[in-house]
Amino acid sequence: MAFLSFSNVGIAGVAACVPANTIDNYRYTEHFPQEVVKKVVDKIGIYERRFADANTCSSDLCYVAAQQLLTDMHVSPKQIDALIFISQTPDYRMPATAFLLQERLQLPTSAIAFDLSLGCSAFLYGLSIGYGLLKQDNIHRVLVLNGETRSKVYSPKDRKTAFLFGDAGTAVLLEKGNQYGNSYFSLNSDGSMANAIKIDGGGYRIPSSVETLQERVVDEYGNIRTLEHGYMNGEDVFNFVAVEVPRDIKKLCNETKIDIHDFDFYLLHQANNFMNQFLVRKLKLDANKVPSSIARFGNTSSASIPLTMVTELKDKLCGNKRLLLSAFGVGLSWGSAILYTSNCHISPLVELS
Length: 353
Known about the structure:
Distance between the termini: 42 Å
Order of helices and strands: EEEHEHEHEHEEEEEEEHEHHHEEEE
Number of helices: 8
């Protein structure tokens, strides 16, 4: 466990943007019998998702969310000292998308800007980096933009992933302040599980070619994808998460001497409803304190926690709150965090047509 602690920095506000295009999961694909579709959708608990169109990237969703947040909080773009863009669906291979957003948002050229490519746990990694930057004397505000258009990554003909993922962009403003007290992070990685969630083709190990874009049957169930589609071994991921995530949360609570039941809210990565219900039961959490956005938005990868804050916790973060966050996925990587918020601003959800 990589244990990190910070004092007097925290989340000042959160905003989110989703595509207006709503997908009914029961009617999403014609490639499987209706009884198979219903069985899968009922098990994962994802009934709707949002899909970006061909011309909309994760940066577009993050840009709208950032504009909304800065406007609502009366913060000038010139007051932002650092921009962290979290995504595995960037605009280009180069340059980093953070630079495009720095110019688009009219942040000062003195601002730090960089991308973080990590996957479902990346929000916690990005927060920890932002918190670290804020410990520097000349860094006062950090903008963490987190967006994914996973609908463009997975095959509609592969039922293992076809019904899971949706698109979203979020913006989180971090700042200094004595009101935030102490925050703690546990961050972990296990590269031996890299093949559990992966895209084989399209990188520099297996460059794009006619072969990588060719559809092929990949298993005995008739699932179809290309080498440039993402795939996931759900059983391996579940078994890993079922052991490592509760263990990590308990370790963090033990390290900080905070009782696991002494939190106002528990924000879990929105992987699927089945997995999160399992974690709630295993950790014996109060289900009323575990907000969920899975049913309406699906798995939005690393954007899922801030999206859940916007859609489920508006008007619920007034005053001082103690939050426990947990995220896990591609890598495999996982992490837990204990954060304090103080009158955290939540902007209304924005839909992008």
